[in-house]
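User: I've been going back and forth on whether these two constructs are worth ordering. Before I decide, could you fold them both?

Assistant: Sure. I'll take them in the order you sent them. The first construct and its structure tokens:
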Amino acid sequence: SEMCIRDSINIILQHKSNASRAVNEELLLTAWYVGGYVSTKLKSKEWGSKVVSQLSEHIRSQHTDIKGYSKRNIYNMVMFYDEYSSETFIATIRQYLNTEFVQPKTAQIEASDHKQEVPVIVQPKTAQFVQPIVGQMPKILELTTLTNHIEILCRCKSNEERLFYILYANKEHLVKRELQRCISNQTLSLIHISEPTRPLYIS
């Protein structure tokens, strides 16, 4: 019947959407941990820009099945990690949103003192010997794509503006070109969401 067909299509679309979200989350986590690893190496002076170039070239020549690791893309991943792991960005999330959007629930330890606001991040001991400790990715970053995040990071300067466009890109299902147009047209200013006490909502 027509109803059965409609129900079947809804099931297919729901699972297709779930699969897309899962793929997006894995891409974001990969960028987060690669960016965090490279960032740590660069800051500790273990690596210079030449090593990043060598890494990119090695992946291109030796691992042809792995795409998206040009020198520029690797530095974009470093920016993605550095900017979104900053204390000021995390503080901005806390100011406007519930704490569940700061860190994944699985990475938090409930403290007996409920006044403690900063979640404790747990990293398996085995991982600590393999790579530098990289903090957990804020849950809110899953709301849009890595491509959109790079646009937001490059084109928006304040953390409030970045947070707004992450939420807006999710709400309006924006692709890169649409997001670029919104930022160029200063959609944030048009919506008048500059008051620090006004919360931002996810629909």
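The second construct, handled the same way:
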Amino acid sequence: MAIIKPFKAVRPLRDKVGLFATRTYLSYSRKVLKDKLENNPYTFLQIINPEFDKNKKIQTKKNYKLIKKKYLEFLNNKIIQKDKEPSYYLYQSNQNNIDYTGIIAAASTREYLNGSIKKHEKTINKREKLFSEYLSKIGFNADPVLLAYKSNKEIQKIICLVQKRRAEYEFTTSDKTLHKLWVISNNKEIQNISNHFKSTNSLYIADGHHRSASSARLSKIKNSNCFMSMLIDEKQLNVFSFNRVIKNTINIKEIDLLKKLKEIFTIKKIQEIEFNSNFKNEILLITKSNSFSLIPNKGTYNNDLLSILPTSILSNNILQPIFKMDDNSKEINYINGKTPNNKIFRIVNESKNSLAFILKPTNFNDIKEISDNNLVLPPKSTYIEPKLRSGITIFELNKNES
């Protein structure tokens, strides 16, 4: 059973939403971030970077207070305001004629802790603790966790009906993505949505493992029983891999690396950097001078859910034994699978002593099976779209709890 709740979102005014909503903070270079903060007084980035223009490092706890202060300033200046009625929010984005549509709601930390909301990636305890403290101090969350559910015709009918109405928000961002948001405050529609999700056995975290875990951690010490989520039909998800660029490989020459790999893989030199087999665990190796297809030999891996995946094969047979690295090594640069292979080739060639491994993505059915069996992939195993904008809806902790 999936328990979700409507909540009173804090949202930008209609004429400010295009200026307020942002990409995830970490996706901006420092130069772009500086430009946005200097030229857009309404961006959500102003709230989470209150001291960006100061040439001194602010202590973490003091920074939390400044963020909260800036948030309250935006409320007082009516750039953002809180809805009067608990609502669900239907959000849609369209880029390159690809639609992603989901329902923004409050999900239950109890459901996460009891396993009804399922995870598939390992989280890092240090990051969990840090983000939990952050949430506790600032008191709000502006980034929904992306939760996938099994296709449901009745939920889809409600979505279609809502989309026939005029959207509360409709704006286009600089990446040519069209964003729309509908507010669902009608009690009957709210009840119907809640009831249909109750018939859903499980929800699956597609993006936001650390945010979910941090909220659950916080719920054990504070009265914070929910976290903001966007629920999306699993068929809409687009799953990519995370590719790896390995830096500082000065201690191993290409010829020696290939000699070691031939003990484990069938190796074929390739001209085009593209997968050329139906093996889902084929790996591509890019060096400064060549590209190779690596197909693991039989006996290299077990046929269990995790061992057969490309991330596990790479980690267990190459990164750990040959490079003496684990998945958290500082010498590994993770690049999302949307990045063209020829760009990764350029990165390798422009970097000293580097090479790259390109992986096939894990399909979502395999991800669900991993989750259902209480197994977890290493961090940075999947890159899943849609990626949601920060600040379109803000969830105030405690004030939305019942």
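Notes on the second construct follow. The chain has 13 helices and 21 strands. Residues 158 and 380 are 34 Å apart (CA to CA).
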